[in-house]
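I am still getting used to backbone structure tokens and would like to learn alongside you. To get us started, please write out a protein record for me. Start from the sequence, derive the backbone structure tokens from it, and show both lines together. Once you have written the record down, we can walk along the chain together:
***
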Amino acid sequence: MVKLPMKEREQTVAPGTIITIDGPSASGKSSVAQRVAAAIGLPYVSSGLLYRGATYQVQRYRVNPEDEAAILATLEAHPIQLLPRPEGNRLLAEGQDITEQLHTREVDAMVSAVSKHKRVRQYVYQRLRELSPPFVVEGRDMGSTVFPDATRKFYLTARPEVRALRRVPERNAEYETVLQEILRRDQADRAQLAPAPDAVLVDTSEMGIDDVVRTILERIPY
């Protein structure tokens, strides 16, 4: 297991604690997970960076995103590594930090095609399960598939129109373009988007981030 760096408040949480925060694209899960993790002194883990890193490698080495075997061979030959840090996650590819290159429209457009492959998801799941708890992890199926025995599970959602408005400043694109990309991602990711049966559902459409974080913290035993 890979031991993650902790903050001073780690002793307030049980050693094996895993808190999952899932949801669709632009539901606010990354920002919320970071705030929740900081509030209780735990590392924050972004599963999405691993999928984006895999997609970056597919594009970098001109691999067909429909060729599952070729994608796995590329990841074995050119591995990626997630580095959760208190100040934020970093993603390394062959030892080089590529984090700043992962949130582009090019990666956005292909990441669903890469992550739909079962063996690619298993590759990511294995990387995540190698991390030693406690931590807060966000993604799409962390509570339902990767960590089914997590201490607490949350699922954030919001109307597509609201999510598009949130993403426009990040992508420097027109609202309608971003909205269509989000709707396409929702359709492509539908197999991963079912919330865990025991997850707490939080609709963030009309909520500010402080309210969402407070709602989650009230339900975490620490």
User: Anything to note?
Assistant: The mean pLDDT is 89. Residues 153 and 198 are 7 Å apart (CA to CA).
